[in-house]
């Protein structure tokens, strides 16, 4: 009957006329029925919006009637496309706005409400005073939506909305009430890394996840340790490892080793060393006895020997330890496990295993190198150097230097910087050979640390090679490199020592090393100071240190382009992974008059937002890619897009389509298209491997 009656209505004019009646019941009847017909007659009803609005604002009209009027106005504004006004009146409708209704109207306004609420919450969090005006009615609608997700069992949807709206209380509730807490915690961790673009907010989410992980009946130590690493809390990781190592259950000890291996994969040297140093020594054994085995150079192995001996992870017994700790078997067990895990955290165990793998699976074809060598003219220094580089890359990390040993006379033809690079190539081949790195490079190193009778290019290259061998694991070689840097005034040797020292102390933010490298920078030598600028960045990589301001100030003072370029790269390295924290420094560099510093600003953007696909960073890079007057800056901006987008290769085509459309001049078309193919292949390769 109702359906038949509805189809007979051809106009809402009669109901609209009743709105002008004086009796409240007639108005209430009109509003109630108009809501039923608004989907059909909204164009006609829209002419009476002022009258319906006045009913909503009339305090003498009953609360329920006023909410009905608000709902009616909201629906009319929705059909008119005025979503802001529609949402405003939907908030006034209170409980009459039914979030469970399955209609386009409700779905659209819920999405609008969530976006508006999330925007206001973000502005409040990012403002200095932390205050923002948020309509309590808007908050009530979002909370009703979140509660409905939890009640309906749509936990992932609820977690996504809670994270977007910065409601960590609702995120916690969604996780706790889910059917599979472990799975939802893992999902939340994934979302926090993939979709939260503000670093500080991501830290807040991870801190909550750590708290929830620790409350589990069977804690997930692997995931907890990963979160603590991103939060830079080595003390928490050390406590977990100590608990597992002291357990009587052998499985717990193996889990501790696995946690350590997972942490080492991230290659965060400073964090790993902090964790290692916070692991307490056994109660009955001096801490000196627990350091990893000495890394003093052993006799040089020939190229046919294995890179390292097999590494055993099962509990063993040391005669000396047993003698010391006979009275306390638990401390003996802990001491043995502690020695192993310190070896893992120092990187030595992983490096040994990597060397074994690379050596045993080396499939490089020396015949290719021999053919290249025979095809290259002896006087062609460029091709000569290229062949040396090819050999280094083909045998990177394998410790196989057969080609160089068999062609020493041919290798000796390299001169000046080609000799520097040829010697440094040995560091690429023997990367990770910590036990014998210094012995292998001994014939080329400065005698007594002060530069002997050999070529300074070979000696500088040898120091650089030591840095490559010990990259990110330089505890055993840092002092030698520091001594070499202090004891020479030859700028080429200083160049190699600075680069080697930066690699060996990567990310450690060692103040003493920084001061020594800064001394070299202030000599204002084009060769040595350029390397010093890069080295300072390597030392402070990812720290967002205030020392970047000093580096930027000196870049403005010096007249050497080489030094400015080295400092520009060094400054960019300091903001690696710091995202919005780097915005102030990026702004300074990208607005600088010096094109070299703007070039560094592109790299700062690339490294600060690497892999985030951050829209703000992409917009900035696209702007500079088509508008900067410097070819170097434009080229670097295009390359920097690859760093920002490497985790989202599917977006590359769309981004570069817009870039190419914006290139009106012919030379810019050529410029962009030359890089497009290379960059796309590089991003795809990175995505596949990582």
UniProtKB/TrEMBL annotation:
Cellular-component GO terms for this entry? nucleus; proteasome regulatory particle, base subcomplex; proteasome storage granule
Annotated region (Disordered) at: 283-302
Write down the SUPFAM superfamilies for this protein, in alphabetical order.
Answer: ARM repeat (SSF48371)
InterPro entries registered for this protein in UniProt: 26S_Psome_Rpn2, ARM-like, ARM-type_fold, Proteasome/cyclosome_rpt, PSMD1_RPN2_N
Q: Where is the composition biased (Low complexity)?
A: 284-295
A Pfam cross-reference name = RPN2_N
Which domain of life does the UniProt lineage start with?
Answer: Eukaryota
Which positions fall inside the 26S proteasome non-ATPase regulatory subunit 1/RPN2 N-terminal domain? 11-282
Q: Name one GO biological process term.
A: proteasome-mediated ubiquitin-dependent protein catabolic process
Recorded GO molecular functions are: enzyme regulator activity
- Keywords in alphabetical order: Proteasome, Repeat
Q: PANTHER family per the record?
A: 26S PROTEASOME NON-ATPASE REGULATORY SUBUNIT, 26S PROTEASOME NON-ATPASE REGULATORY SUBUNIT 1
- Which family does this protein fall into? Belongs to the proteasome subunit S1 family.
Q: How does it assemble?
A: Component of the 19S regulatory particle (RP/PA700) base subcomplex of the 26S proteasome. The 26S proteasome is composed of a core protease (CP), known as the 20S proteasome, capped at one or both ends by the 19S regulatory particle (RP/PA700).
Role summary: Acts as a regulatory subunit of the 26S proteasome which is involved in the ATP-dependent degradation of ubiquitinated proteins.
Q: Know the name of this protein?
A: 26S proteasome non-ATPase regulatory subunit 1 homolog
Lineage of producing organism: Eukaryota, Viridiplantae, Streptophyta, Embryophyta, Tracheophyta
């Amino acid at each position: 009957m109702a359906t038949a009656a509805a189809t007979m209505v051809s106009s809402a004019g009669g109901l609209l006329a009743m709105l002008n009646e004086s009796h409240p019941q007639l108005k209430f009847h009109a509003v109630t029925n108009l809501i039923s017909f608004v989907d059909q007659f909204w164009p006609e009803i829209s002419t009476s919006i002022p009258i319906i609005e006045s009913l909503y604002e009339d305090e003498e009209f009953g609360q329920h009637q006023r909410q009905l009027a608000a709902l009616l106005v909201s629906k009319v504004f929705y059909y008119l496309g005025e979503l802001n006004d529609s949402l405003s009146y939907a908030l006034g409708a209170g409980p009459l706005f039914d979030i469970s209704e399955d209609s386009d109207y409700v779905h659209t306004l819920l999405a609008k409400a969530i976006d508006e609420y999330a925007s206001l919450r973000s502005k409040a969090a990012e403002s200095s005073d932390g205050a923002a005006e948020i309509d309590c009615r808007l908050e009530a609608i979002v909370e009703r939506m979140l509660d409905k997700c939890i009640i309906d069992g749509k936990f992932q949807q609820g977690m996504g909305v809670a994270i977007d709206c910065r409601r960590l209380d609702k995120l916690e509730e969604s996780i706790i009430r889910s059917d599979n807490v472990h799975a939802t915690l893992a999902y939340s961790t994934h979302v926090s890394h993939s979709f939260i673009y503000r670093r500080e907010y991501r830290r807040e989410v991870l801190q909550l996840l750590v708290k929830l992980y620790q409350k589990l009946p069977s804690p997930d130590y692997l995931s907890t340790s990963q979160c603590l690493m991103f939060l830079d809390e080595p003390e928490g990781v050390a406590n977990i490892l100590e608990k597992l190592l002291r357990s009587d259950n052998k499985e717990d000890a193996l889990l501790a080793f696995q946690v350590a291996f997972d942490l080492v994969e991230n290659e965060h040297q400073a964090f790993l060393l902090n964790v290692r140093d916070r692991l307490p020594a056994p109660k009955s054994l001096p801490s000196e006895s627990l350091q990893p085995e000495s890394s003093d150079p052993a006799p040089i192995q020939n190229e046919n020997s294995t890179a390292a001996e097999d590494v055993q992870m099962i509990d063993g017994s040391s005669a000396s330890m047993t003698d010391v700790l006979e009275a306390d078997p638990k401390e003996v067990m802990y001491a043995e496990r502690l020695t192993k895990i310190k070896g893992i955290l120092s990187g030595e165990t992983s490096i040994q295993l990597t060397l074994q793998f690379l050596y045993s699976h080396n499939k490089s074809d020396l015949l290719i190198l021999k053919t290249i060598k025979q095809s290259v003219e002896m006087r062609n220094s460029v091709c000569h150097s290229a062949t040396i580089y090819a050999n280094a890359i083909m045998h990177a990390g394998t410790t196989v230097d057969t080609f160089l040993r068999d062609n020493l006379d041919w290798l000796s033809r390299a001169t000046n910087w080609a000799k520097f690079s040829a010697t440094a190539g040995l560091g690429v081949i023997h990367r990770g050979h910590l036990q014998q790195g210094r012995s292998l490079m001994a014939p080329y190193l400065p005698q007594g640390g002060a530069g002997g009778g050999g070529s300074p290019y070979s000696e500088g290259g040898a120091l650089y090679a030591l840095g490559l061998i010990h990259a990110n694991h330089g505890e055993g070689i840092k002092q030698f490199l520091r001594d070499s840097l202090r004891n020479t005034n030859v700028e080429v040797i200083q160049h190699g020592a600075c680069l080697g020292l930066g690699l060996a102390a990567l990310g450690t933010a060692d103040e003493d090393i920084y001061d020594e490298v800064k001394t070299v920078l202030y000599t204002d030598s084009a060769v040595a100071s350029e390397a010093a600028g890069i080295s300072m960045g390597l030392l402070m990589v990812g720290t967002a240190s205030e020392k970047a301001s000093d580096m930027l100030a000196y870049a403005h003072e010096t007249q050497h382009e080489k030094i400015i370029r080295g400092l520009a790269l060094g400054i960019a390295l300091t903001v690696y992974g710091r995202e919005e924290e780097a915005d102030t420094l990026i702004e300074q560099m990208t607005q600088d008059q010096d094109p070299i510093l703007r070039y560094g600003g592109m790299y700062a953007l690339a490294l600060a937002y690497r892999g985030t696909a951050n829209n703000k960073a992409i917009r900035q890079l696209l702007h500079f890619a088509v508008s900067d007057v410097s070819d170097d800056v434009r080229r670097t901006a295009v390359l920097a897009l690859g760093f920002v987008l490497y985790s989202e290769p599917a977006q590359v085509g769309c981004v570069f389509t817009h870039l190419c459309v914006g290139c009106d001049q012919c030379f810019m078309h050529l410029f962009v298209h030359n890089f497009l193919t290379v960059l796309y292949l590089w991003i795809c390769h990175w995505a596949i491997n990582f």
